[in-house]
Amino acid sequence: MTETPARSRTRRVMIGRVPVGGGAPVAVQSMTNTVTSDIEATVAQIARLAHVGCDIARVAVPDGAAADALPEIIARSGIPVVADIHFDHRLGLRAVEAGAHALRINPGNIGAEERVRALVAACSEASIPIRIGVNAGSLERDILERHGHPTAEAMVESAERHAALLEERDFSDIIVSLKSSDVPTTVDANRLMASRHDYPLHLGITEAGTLVPGAVRSSVGLGLMLADGLGDTIRVSLAAPPEDEVRVGREILRSLGLRHGGVTVVACPTCGRTEIDVPGIASEIERRTADIRTPVTVAVMGCVVNGPGEAREADLGVAGGRGRSVLFAGGREIGRLTSDDLAGELLRRLQDLIDERGKE
Question: How far apart are CA 237 and CA 166, in angstroms?
């Protein structure tokens, strides 16, 4: 395996108030899927993304109407906004003027070098970074001809070519992403890039698919790279609501110990012994605690076989039984519940626990 640098060795850039690289916490991104020119819908979706823990929002700027909407969207957003630019560099210039906190460009479709130079000059003057987004599906023709198909080496060559174009103009606030829908290709490309350069890396498996297969592919690919010490910011790309991208991304980071905080729900997979609605209770707790940042583990267990042991290990847990469930907190049994509204009871007790911790 090629030796790769730790996250602390990448250069630090700022996207608004969010540090990226240089050992900063791995930031979670998502992208709005509203029509950007619909200001109210876009602002509302960004607010929902922030609610579930998104650090940075990216918005598509495909036309003049979207560019017109940017100033108000950025002004009303509670998190930094990255403008996603393709084909027309003039839209990128307008995004900078609107106050975008970063630009994402795909060098393969921006066109002539002078267009890239104009974007560099504008971003330099505004002190905002550029993410060079290399996608396996839109590599430059000469690179594809040389490599035959979108290999990891071809993707890195594309990124290096365009990073050099920026560096030659004394612009170094650069983030690089190398994405393919193929997990091994994406992993190899990022490992190769990290072995050669100190650019912060934005990780993702592009076009990963619908919720379940997309979450699996993203977890495998991002998990491999993050465990290598790669990645300063991530996006889980799903054909699903953007809020789900954020939830999956945060769970990937928490599973690797790269993010802490928030409510972690441990739930049994259910079987013929299950005597309570485990999926319903667990989902309700997750939904209603999405904005909580206090680190708390809640266990929802469906029977008395493994239930008590798992529930004792959680901050708050329930082991379900027929007509009566055992409640645990801090490793000890604290009572029995006969309520039909187990989710509501757990949520009330969870809020008490969070309030108590807030006083400590």
Answer: 27
Q: CA-to-CA distance for 71 and 59, rounded, in angstroms?
A: 12
The CA-atom distances, in angstroms, between 318 and each of 273, 277, 287, 293 are 15, 12, 18, 22
Q: Which two tokens stand for residue 179?
A: 């994405």
- The C-alpha atoms of residue 133 and residue 145 are separated, in whole angstroms, by 20
What is the band of 214 on the pLDDT scale with cuts at 50, 70, 90?
A: very high
Which residues, in sequence order, are CB contacts of 333 under 8 Å at separation 6+? 308, 312, 326, 327
Question: Would you state the structure tokens that stand for residue 165, as one six-digit string?
Answer: 């174009």
Residue 149 per-residue DSSP state: S
Q: How far apart are CA 317 and CA 300, in angstroms?
A: 6
Beta strands in 154-235 (DSSP E): 174-179, 202-203, 233-235
Q: Is 198 in contact with 10 (CB distance < 8 Å)?
A: yes
Average pLDDT estimate for 234-251: 95
Write out pLDDT tens, residues 119-149: 999 999 999 999 999 988 888 889 989 999 9
What tokens were used for 147? 């490599």
